């Protein structure tokens, strides 16, 4: 503990916009079947004119350093301005907006029961939208995604200490999910409360290489999927769920629940994923963006609009199949195979080959207030190459642009309560994204 230093940064790492790479290195935006109309892409009345991607210059300002293998950052939505930094070794630390830590002691320490070799560890943290709402379900509760001592995935809930908002109470842990992992890699890791205050959980295909168990195309397993569950306890009577001994419910409009659905686990919401390390919802539109780490050749960003997810009027939410392990990106897997009719798959909106990077890190659509001209711009990165891109897949102009080439291990992005964005360096630093 003595070597850990949290300090307000006195130096900003400025990374100017870089020139476009050659065609082999440039991520490809895959056009949709139909272009949006001018009305659909028009900015709301009174909104600032959208900034062009060419206009973006990025400055990464060091906020705090000295974390041990940080992998995520989030706010709690409680108005405190605190940020919570997840360390893969099994700890969560509180970070003030000025870069100082709340205390030397962590908010949570489960390192004694967290396995953190290979791609395992404490990987995700989520606070419900009602975390600070007295009298509401889930008040004072938070949720974590970690690997237990046997290497299996655990998703559990805990409560904050009633005496100290900067301390969790590990004795309150309740396990929601325990998912056996056949291999050490492809654990997913993201958990987030969505626009409906349900809990969304990313799980990889179980690991090894090439998905030897075929989990990606099998929704009757939890692996290779984004799950959607309702963790409220006690369950509100109006929810009208069937009786169960589980610590959660599967929403009635999940694709394998709705209409007495069959063929898949009731928790499965999206599937056909290899290793959806980081995904996010757009705060304004409810669109989902998923960074799915590729196999040997292609990294991909998947996208589904909020309307397609929640507003189709058929009583079903989700159900999209992103193609793994029949497809890697928009390409057959293996490359010389015949994927058959690919119309059953939701293809990525962006992909790039391994000359540009080898491990995509999904990010966020910007919805902060400091840079309104860049509202809705999606930022993502690559862990292996240190590159950062900005994208507008529904923009009628240039849709994707590399904005930085860094020497950081860009393991994750983070979003604070105000919608401002951060990048997390696996080597120990947290950087604020300043756009100009």
Architecture blueprint of SSEs:
Layout: E1 12-15, E2 28-29, H1 38-41, E3 58-64, E4 70-75, E5 83-87, E6 91-95, E7 108-109, E8 122-126, E9 141-147, E10 153-160, E11 168-179, E12 191-193, E13 199-203, E14 225-229, E15 268-271, E16 276-281, E17 288-292, E18 298-304, H2 306-310, E19 327-328, E20 331-332, E21 350-353, E22 360-365, E23 378-382, E24 387-391, E25 400-405, E26 410-415, E27 421-425, E28 430-435
Parallel strand pairs: 4-26
Antiparallel strand pairs: 1-3, 2-21, 3-28, 4-5, 5-6, 6-7, 8-9, 9-10, 10-11, 12-13, 13-14, 14-15, 16-17, 17-18, 18-21, 19-20, 22-23, 23-24, 24-25, 26-27, 27-28
Label the structural class: mainly beta
Low-confidence stretches: 1-24
Helix content: under 10%
- Strand residues, percent: 25-35%
Globally, the shape reads globular
The ordered string of helix (H) and strand (E) elements is EEHEEEEEEEEEEEEEEEEHEEEEEEEEEE
Sheet with the most strands: spatial strand order: 1-3-28-27-26-4-5-6-7
Rounded to the nearest angstrom, the radius of gyration is 21 Å
Biggest sheet descriptor? 9 strands, mixed
Q: Would you count the extended β strands for me?
A: 28
Instruction: Report how far the terminal alpha carbons are from each other.
Output: 37 Å
Number of helices: 2
Overall average pLDDT = 88
Question: Summarize this, please?
Answer:
This protein is 2% helix and 33% strand. The chain is mostly beta strands and 436 residues long. The strands form 6 sheets. Strands 1-3-28-27-26-4-5-6-7 form a 9-stranded mixed beta sheet, with no helix packed on it. Strands 2-21-18-17-16 form a 5-stranded antiparallel beta sheet. Strands 8-9-10-11 form a 4-stranded antiparallel beta sheet, with no helix packed on it.
């Amino acid at each position: 503990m003595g070597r850990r230093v949290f300090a307000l940064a006195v130096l900003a790492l400025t990374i100017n916009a870089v020139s476009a790479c050659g065609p082999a290195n440039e991520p490809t935006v895959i056009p949709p079947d139909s272009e949006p109309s001018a009305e659909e892409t028009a900015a709301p009345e009174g909104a600032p004119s959208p900034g062009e991607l060419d206009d973006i210059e990025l400055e990464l300002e060091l906020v705090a350093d000295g974390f041990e293998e940080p992998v995520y950052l989030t706010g709690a939505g409680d108005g405190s301005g605190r940020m919570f930094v997840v360390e893969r070794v099994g700890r969560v630390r509180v970070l003030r907006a000025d870069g100082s830590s709340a205390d030397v002691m962590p908010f949570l320490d489960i390192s004694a029961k967290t396995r953190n070799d290979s791609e395992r560890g404490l990987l995700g943290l989520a606070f419900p939208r009602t975390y600070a709402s007295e009298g509401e379900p889930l008040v004072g509760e938070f949720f974590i995604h970690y690997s237990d001592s046997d290497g299996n995935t655990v998703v559990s809930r805990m409560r904050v200490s009633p005496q100290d908002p900067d301390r969790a109470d590990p004795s309150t842990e309740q396990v929601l999910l325990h998912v056996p992992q056949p291999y050490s890699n492809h654990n997913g890791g993201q958990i987030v409360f969505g626009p409906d205050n349900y809990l969304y959980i990313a799980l990889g295909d179980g690991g090894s290489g090439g998905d030897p168990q075929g989990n990606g195309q099998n929704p009757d397993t939890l692996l290779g999927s984004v799950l959607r569950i309702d963790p409220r306890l006690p369950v509100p009577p109006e929810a009208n769920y069937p009786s169960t001994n589980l610590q959660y419910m599967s929403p009635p409009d999940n694709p394998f629940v709705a209409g007495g659905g069959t063929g898949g686990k009731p928790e499965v919401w999206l599937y056909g994923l290899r290793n959806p390390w980081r995904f996010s919802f757009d705060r304004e539109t409810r669109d989902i963006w998923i960074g799915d780490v590729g196999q040997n050749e292609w990294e991909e960003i998947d996208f589904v609009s909020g309307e397609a997810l929640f507003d189709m009027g058929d009583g079903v939410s989700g159900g999209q199949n992103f193609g793994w392990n029949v497809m890697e990106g928009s390409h057959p897997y293996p490359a010389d195979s015949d994927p058959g009719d690919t119309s059953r798959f939701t293809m990525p909106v962006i992909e790039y080959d391994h000359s540009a990077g080898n491990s995509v890190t999904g990010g966020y659509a910007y919805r902060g207030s400091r840079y309104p001209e860049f509202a809705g711009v999606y930022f993502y990165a690559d862990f292996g190459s240190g590159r950062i891109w900005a994208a507008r897949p529904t923009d009628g102009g240039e849709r994707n642009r590399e904005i930085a080439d860094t020497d950081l291990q860009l393991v994750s992005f983070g979003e604070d309560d105000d919608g401002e964005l951060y990048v997390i360096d696996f080597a120990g630093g947290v950087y604020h994204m300043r756009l100009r």
